[in-house]
Specification:
Helix content: 55-70%
Largest sheet: none
Shape: globular
Structural class: mainly alpha
Radius of gyration: 23 Å
Length: about 450
Amino acid sequence: MSISSVKPPSPADAPPRERPNSEGKSLVGAFAVSIFAWAADYKATTGHGAVAIQALILGIYSILFIWITVSGVKRGVRVGPLWALLLASAVFMIESSIVGLNQSQPAYQILVNLIPPFIYMTASLLTYVTLSASQDDFPSFLNVLRLACLAFGVVRILLILVLRGTINAADARWEILSGAVVPSLGVIALAFMQRLSVLDVFVLTFNLFVSVLSVTRTLFVALAAQIASIFLARPSAVFKSTTFKGLALFGLAVVMIVALDVGAGTDLTERWVQRLTVSQRMGADPTALTRSAETHFMLESFASSPDSVIFGNGLAALTSLTGPDAERAARLVGWGSVNLHSVGYGHESYASILFVAGLLGGGGLLLMQFVNGLQSIALIRSVQLGRLNHGESAAHIAVWGGLIVIGMFATGFLSGVMGDRDYCVWYGIGTGMLYWARGLVKAPE
């Protein structure tokens, strides 16, 4: 047979190379909708005013979660190492709910407190499945996260403007912060290792300005932990050129914010000075004292009996402020500012887990979150050593995911991360990125 008689393959006979990628893009698009939906979430100041909107968001998210998970399973995606975290989260939710119902705690409050850990668990799986099934569509995934960071921050500001009419730069606080602020600040640490896009820089600058406007010190503790993890993973990274570029980026962003503050006359610099020197002026920091007093109560309640050690106090148990720090805070700001209660989760995430679920329900989740923090540092080191040869976008996802987990882990010592829906969305996203990227790491030769 002559060469000329060989029939060229028809398009139908060609291997379907483009189809898996297009399927991956469809998952990224659905993932984007499921995450962007939470940007419109907000907490009503009184009653159940936001319950209809929250139910709608949760419904949209749940439908897309099921669709993406089923699609991923059809494409051969398996849960892999994520099963341990999913199991620990499910045990925490079920056990703490049963204890709460057994102690006649309000069913509505239990349901409300179930939503954040549910989001944390499912967002981890959602992210893991999307990345595993998206083939080489990682740049699109990164752009979704960048735009989501921006959308969460902008929508939060717009919601406050609609609901309150204005934002006073002289007293704006935590209410202007979205759950995307910790991942956005992590871009500063990300710059020490990866090249940033223009959108990265814009997202970072916007959320850094909102962070400064909120005068929230916890955020910069999280940022310090993220930056420290880069050098803890590999101390020699301090001498790399990317480190100086990252520091220059951070310095430039700070200079821009200070210049904007001076030009607008918002007195943010003065607010920060007052916030940072409150201990010198008052003899102690009332905020730190109240946080410590609440943690004292939760740990004391946890250790008060064998039952509470094993089973906890239930998902809708009330917290209080007790101990010597509560008395000191009362002397500084009055008992009216100390006689406060949270439901279930307090202002320290890890004490809250033990308080509501004990060792039986919360021990596994607590262990997994600490392990994930260590795994994040190990993953960052693997990327620094070149053990993740899957392209720049995959390395970007790996490092950013590890930084999100580290930032949220650090925030948990000073804030009730597991009780906040926004924070759990992003904590879950970072965790899913972490577990997916760990599967790409080559063993050292």
